[in-house]
Give the backbone structure.
Amino acid sequence: MQDNRQRRLTVFWLAAILCAIAAAITFAKVKYLDFSFDDKASFYYQADATLAFEAKKGADVKLSISLPEKTSLYYFGRDPSGDSRFNIVRENGLARAAAEFICTSNGWQNISYRFKIIPKSGGGEKAEFNLPPEKENPPQVSDAIKIAVAKLVKKIDPEANMTSRNFASALFRELAAMPPEQKKIFSPLSGSSGTLEAADLILSLKEIPSRIVRGIFLNEQARSSQAAQFLEVWCGDAWVMFKPSSGEEQKPKDFLVLQRSGKSLYEISGASNSSLRFSVTKVPQGAASLNRIRANVIGDQKLSDFSLFSLPASEQNIFKRLTLLPLAILFIVIARNIVGVKTMGTFMPVLIAMAFLEMSLIPGLLCFAIILTVGLSIRFWLSKLNLLMVPRISAVVVVVILIMQAISIAGNLLKLPNFISATFFPLIIIAWTIERASTVWEEDGAGHTIRQLAASLVTAVFSYLVLSNSYLQYLLYTFAELNLAILGVILLLGTYTGYRLTELLRFKSLVK
Amino acid sequence: MRFPFKFPQFASPKALHESGVLGMNERNHAYIMRYNNRKDYPDVDDKLRTKKLAVEHGVSTAEFVGAIDCQFQVKNFFKMVENVPDFVIKPGHGSGGRGILVITRHDGKTFYKPNGARCDFNFIYEHISNILSGLYSLGGNPDYALFERCIDFSDVYSRFSYQGVPDVRLIVFKGYPVMSMIRLATKLSDGRANLHQGAIGVGISIKTGLPLFAAQHNKRIEVHPDTNANLSELRIPFWQEHLRLAALCATMTPLGYFGADISTDSKRGPLLLELNARPGLAIQIANGCGLLKRLRLIESLPENLHATIEEKIKFSKENFD
C-alpha cells in the first residue's frame, strides 16, 4: 500500500514538473520573444536604407548609418538578406551600421542596409523618451546671430511671457513667413532642414531645450523617400513634436524614430554627392512565421532554438503534424480509459484521423469505407482458401495497396483531387484492421464488428476534429513544449483508477 | 410526440463505489499490476505449462492426449487421436476460448462436432495449421496445438447449457476464492461460454454453492432462453471440491489475482480447464454484487493469518455469500 502511494506520488510530481517546465518555456517565449497566443495573421515591415554616392575606382569608402533607438513600439533587427558589407558598431550607446570597402568601379554606386521592423503588441510610447533634457550650455555663436535672434524673439514674444509651447509654434510660423535670404543668418541649409536648424538654434539660445528627430514613416507606400525630420521641443513636462513646414504639433503614427538630436543620419568619407533614402515594404505574414522572425530579430537565439522554427522548412512541415499527435494520443487515452470506448487497435483511430487530415473528412470517410468493404470481402474470400496467417495478411496488405492505387487513379480521372491522396492511409494499420474485423466477425458476429468499427470511426472523427483545429495546430506548433504538459497528463491518467463512463452503464444493476 | 431515443441513465460513480463495484482501471492498476508479476504470466498463458504445474501440485485436469508444435507433424495428428473416442484441440496460447475445436466422436474418417456437424481430415489439418501459424495466439506468435480428452458433462448440466461445456469461474485472490459464477452456453453465444458473445453468467454463492443471480448481456434473467430450464434449480456438484481446486491453483503460481475455470466431468469430477491472469469483471453482474469489498477485506487481513488452503476456504465460506 505504502509502496503504491509512493509510486503515485512520484507520477504526480513527475507530471507537475513536466507541466511546470512547459509553462516556464511558454512563459519565456511569450515574455521575452513576444510569441503570440493569437494565431491571427499579421505583418512586418522590411526597410532598406540605401546610401547612394559617387566614388572613384580604388577609393577607400567609409560610411555608417545610424540605426533606430530602442522603442516600445517596434522590434527591429538586421535582415540577413541585405548587403553583407555592413557591421554593427556602437557609439555612445547608439548602434550604427558601418561599412568600409575599396570601390571596384567608377561613378554612382549604392549600398543598402536592410532591416526588419515588427510592431510590438500593445506597445505605447512610454516615458523613456519623455525624460527631461539634460542642462545644456547655449551654443557659441557670433554677435550678429545673437542680435538677429534677440530681434526675432522680441518680435514673437514682446512681453516675454509665452510658454515654450506657444513660443515654438509661433517661431515656426515666423520662420515659414521669413524670406530665405534672411533665414540664411540662422542656418546655411535651405528648405525645411534650414527651418529646423534655425528653430533649434533660436530655441537653444532662448534656453528652451529642443532636438531634431529624424525617422521614417512605415505606412507610406512611396517607393523611396528621404527621412522625415521634426523638431522636438521640451514644453516643461513633455517633448512635443513640431512639423517644420507649418509649425503644427505632430503625433505621427507609424513613425519609426531613427535618430534624436544628431547632426546627420549618416556619415561617409571617400565619396561625394551622397544621399540616403529609405524604402519600406509591408510584408503580410502568418502568426507562426512572424513569431520566428520576431524571435530572430529579438536575437535571443538560445531561446528560439528551443522552438521548431530553427529546423529547415521541409522538416517543419513534418513536425507540424508530429506536434499535434500527442494531443490526439491524449484523446485516445481519454476515450479508452475514461470513457471506455472499445476501438479496433489502440492507435488505429489516430492514424486514420491523420489520413483524413490529408484528404479532408468526407472523402476520407468515403475512401475508408470503400477500402474496408472491398478489403473485407476479399479477406472473406481468402479465408475460404485456408491460407496460413502471414501469407494471408500479406495478401490483404497487397490488396489494400491495390485498392488505394485504384482510388487514386480514379480520383485523378474524375478530377477529385481529395481522392488522389488515398495513399495517405496507413496501409499496414488498415490491413490489420481488416484482419481483426474479419476475425471478430467470424467469432462474435457482425454486430460486434460493426459496433467496434463504428466506435473506432467515431473516435477517428473526433481525433480528426482535434487535429484539424487550426488554432490548436498553431498553438502546439508554436509552443511545442506544451507537449511536455500533455505527457504529464498522460502519466497522470496512468494512475486513474476511477470508473470508466461506459462502466457506469454496464454495472448500473449493481447499485443497491 | 414522444422522442423514441431514450438517453441512457448513468449510475453515479459514488453509488457504484459504495456498492463495491470494481472498475476496469482499478482492476488493472490496483490488482493485476500489483499482484500479478509479468514474469509469471506464462504459468497461465501457456496451457502446457499450466497442465504440468497442475499435475505437480495435484490439481486434476482434463486427460492429456498430445501436442503438435511443427507443421510437418500436422499430417500425423490422426496417429495421436486414433485410440481416443473424443478429443479437444486447443491453441497453446489461446485466450477467450478462441480456436478451440471439440470432436465428440469420430470413425477415423469423419469427425463430429458437438452440434452434430461433420468435418473431415482436411478441416482438422487446416485448423491445426492455423493454430501453429499463430492465428489464435496472443500477438499472433507461432503456437502449438494441445490435444486433450473431452470433458463429459452430459448428465450434470445438460439441461442448462446449449451445446458447449459449462464451466465454473472462480476468482482467487491471494489464495482465497472470492467470487464465483458458472457460464452457460446459449444459441446466441454459438455454443461457447463467452459472456460477451451472449452466454449466461450465473452467480454462485461461495458459501453454499447455490445459484444467486443470472444475467445475460448484463441483464437479469430467470430461465435459460434455449432450454427453458429454471436457472435457480441449477446445482453445482462437488462444490467443496471446486473451492479446494481453486485454492490449490494459488499454490501452482505466484500470481496473486487470477480466475480459475473449472468444469465437472461426469466420471472424474471437477477438473481445471485453465487459469486466467486477467479475469473479466462481468462476474460482478452475474453475482449482483461488487468485488471490491471482498478484495479489500482480504487485503486487510494480516499476512499468514490462514496458513492452509482449508483455513482460507473456511474464511471465504464464512465471509462471501
